[in-house]
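Quick start: what a row looks like.
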Amino acid sequence: MPMDINIQLSDDDLQFFVKGMRDVEASIKGQNPDAIIAAAQELLDKTRGNHVPPFIAERIGSVESLIAMTRDVGFNLPTEDQHRVLAALAYLADPNDAIPDDVPVLGFLDDAIMIELCRRDLSHEIEAYDDFCEWRADEAEHRGVDPAKLGVQRMDWAEARAAETIALMRRRRSESYASGAWQPTLFKIS
C-alpha cells in the first residue's frame, strides 16, 4: 500500500543546502566542466536501473536537460549560470554528499532537493532554453535540415522572438482600428 510523505523545509533547512551548494561551487573552480558533466551522466546511467521514489526520479530525470543546456553551443548559457548548473551536477555526482547515494530509497533525496533548488533558481533560463529548443526544431523542420546542423544561435532566436512580438503588436493595433473600437486622436492613419 503506497504512502504519501510530505517534507517541508524551513528557511534554516534550506540554508543547509545553500551552504552545501556554496561549498561545491568553491570546490569546482578550476575543474574541467566536461569531467563534471561526465560524472553526472554516469550517475544518471546508473540510476536508470534502480527504483527510486517518483519525487527523486523526476528531479534526476531533469538533469539531462540541465546537461544539454550547459553543453548547447547554440544556446550559449552565460558563464555564471553555467557554473551554477555545474555545481549542482558536481553535488549530484558526489556519492558521499549529505545522504550517501548507496542508502536505499533515500540516497538521492538530498540530490533531488539540490536539483530542485537549482531548477527554481534557473527557472527562467530553463524556460528560455526549452523555448529555444522548440524554436530551433521548428526552424530546422521549416528549412528541411537536421536541428543539430542548423547552426542557429540564441541571438537568432531572440531576434525571431522580437519580430514576432512586433508583428503581434501591429496585428492587434490593426484589429482594433478595423473593429472601430478605437480611433487614433494623435496620429493620422493613412
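That is the whole record. The chain has a mean pLDDT of 82. Residues 44 and 98 are 18 Å apart (CA to CA).
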